[in-house]
């Protein structure tokens, strides 16, 4: 089933359209296809969850975009697993580390554990395709992650976007796009 296409809007309040500079008058919303492409290729994400006492918890992770859903994992006893058991709302963030160029992305939604075995195998394939030797080679940083997913030692979460944001920078021309699903 194809992933739902979001509504897309440029938020001029946070875009160069309200702060004129060369090229700013032509600023447009970032197309969802471009954002999705970045989600497919980004190697590192930051997952933000909420602790039971309301404090935030932010940590880096790897993730794979597959069939309109962002998948990430954690150990069963790690803080983010505990937080998501209490409150499934979270955000995954990725982007560039530049003031003038790049596209930062924030995907918000509810993280649901993946229990379906066939879906889990698809996610493992997506991880292996994306991260290659980091996962498939015995010398890889995350070697064995597929087996960890299969055994249940790691919990795999599916984050279907409710809302996503793109903060674009193109030689000092800024855009702020909101996608609503």
Question: How would you briefly describe this protein structure?
Answer:
The protein has 5 helices and 9 strands; from the N terminus they run E-H-E-E-E-E-H-E-E-H-H-H-E-E.
Question: Your description of this structure?
Answer:
This protein is α+β, with helices and mostly antiparallel strands and 181 residues long. The protein contains five helices and nine strands. Strands 1, 2, 3, 4, 5, 6, 7, 8 and 9 form a nine-stranded antiparallel beta sheet that branches. A hairpin with a 2-residue loop joins strand 8 (154-170) and strand 9. The longest helix has 15 residues, at 117-131. The protein is globular, with a radius of gyration of 17 Å.
Topology readout:
Elements: E1 7-10, H1 32-41, E2 45-50, E3 56-61, E4 63-66, E5 69-75, H2 79-86, E6 89-94, E7 101-113, H3 117-131, H4 133-136, H5 145-151, E8 154-170, E9 173-180
Antiparallel strand pairs: 1-9, 2-3, 2-6, 4-5, 5-8, 6-7, 7-8, 8-9
Strand count, sense and barrel status of the largest sheet are: 9 strands, antiparallel
Approximate helicity band: 10-25%
- Rg value: 17 Å
User: How many β-strand runs?
Assistant: 9
Q: Give the averaged pLDDT, no decimals.
A: 93
Name the shape in a single word: globular
Q: Which keywords apply here?
A:
single chain, 181 residues, alpha+beta, 9-stranded antiparallel β-sheet, 5 helices, 9 strands
């Amino acid at each position: 089933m194809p992933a739902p296409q979001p509504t897309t809007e440029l938020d001029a309040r946070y875009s160069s359209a309200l702060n004129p500079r060369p090229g700013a008058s032509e600023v447009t919303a970032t197309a969802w296809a471009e954002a999705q492409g970045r989600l497919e290729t980004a190697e590192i994400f930051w997952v933000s969850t909420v602790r039971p006492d309301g404090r935030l918890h932010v940590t880096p992770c790897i993730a794979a975009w597959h069939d309109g859903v962002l998948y990430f994992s954690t150990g069963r006893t790690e803080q983010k697993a505990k937080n998501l058991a209490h409150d499934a709302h979270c955000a995954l963030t990725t982007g560039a580390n530049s003031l003038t160029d790049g596209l930062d992305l924030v995907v918000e939604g509810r993280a649901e554990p993946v229990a379906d075995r066939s879906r889990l195998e698809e996610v493992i394939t997506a991880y292996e395709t994306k991260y290659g030797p980091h996962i498939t080679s015995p010398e890889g940083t995350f070697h064995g992650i597929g087996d960890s997913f299969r055994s249940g030692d790691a919990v795999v979460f599916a984050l279907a976007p409710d809302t996503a944001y793109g903060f674009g920078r193109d030689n000092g021309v800024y855009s702020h796009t909101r996608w609503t699903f």
